[in-house]
Amino acid sequence: MRHSVKSRFVVGLAVCAASICAVGVWARKANHSISQLQVGNKTRLLLIDSIAELDSVKVGQKTARRFKVTVKNGYSQPVVAYALQQQDNAVGQGSTAAIETNGAAIGWVLAPNATDETNFSTTAEGGVVLTVAAVLLKDGTGDGDTETLSRLKDVRAGVKIAYQQIIQSLRRASDATADPGSDVNIQALEDEISATADERNVHGNLRRGFHQAKDLILKDLREIKNGISSGRHLEPRSEIAKVKLRVENVLANF
Questions:
Q1: Among 107, 227, 207, CA closest to 151
Q2: What SS3 state is found at 48?
Q3: How many helices and strands (H and E) does the chain possess?
Q4: Per-residue model confidence as pLDDT tens digits over 154-201
Q5: For a Cys-Cys bond, which of 22, 55, 148, 188 suits 134, CB 3.0-4.6 Å?
Q6: 6, burial (CB in 10 Å: exposed 0-12, middle 13-18, buried 19+)
Q7: Which CATH number, 1.50.10.20, 2.60.40.1510, 2.60.40.10, 2.40.50.140, labels domain 8-144?
């Protein structure tokens, strides 16, 4: 089961190579230089269900191959975030690229026995190591690589900090007697949230989650404002109330 809106991060991390628990092999195909995929897992029950090749595209002088990875939640409770690590000679010796799925800003969860899909690509010539690095569960526990798990927790906590600062502005705007009926008033709300959601005292991976949540709200407000400007029949207070309700639901499930 996949939700259509999901926040993903792809970042480079300087870490040691992952230990490999299982090995799968791609058959060699004409004009493809990647002949082997090694699959590892540092978690107990977030399982790689399948890997499928999607397509190939030219990136400069190299060819990038794109793949779809399907993971399955084998835990008895929902997954709220997980991370894969990709290691190959295109990423760099001794380094990995992290593919993180953390849907805290929209309340995303992966139910027990459900599956989720994510993509990765590589221009590597040679083998690729793909490892399930860490998983965060709804009750706040998790397993896998401790550093990666800590990062997932911090990003999620950063979303909560941002929403706790933003929710009061949304409530005032949606409950106001006067309808914020113009794009100018929506802009005023956008400016208020930009100013009051202050990340200066939020550091590290907490800030990543904070920015993710704040940027999503500002994007929602810009879409409402642009809709009004373009003449669409929108009720601004009602649209803001929808954003407020989503944030309240997310906060209630932390």
A1: 207
A2: strand
A3: 4, 10
A4: 999 999 999 999 999 999 988 875 555 555 578 889 999 998 888 888
A5: 148
A6: middle
A7: 2.60.40.10
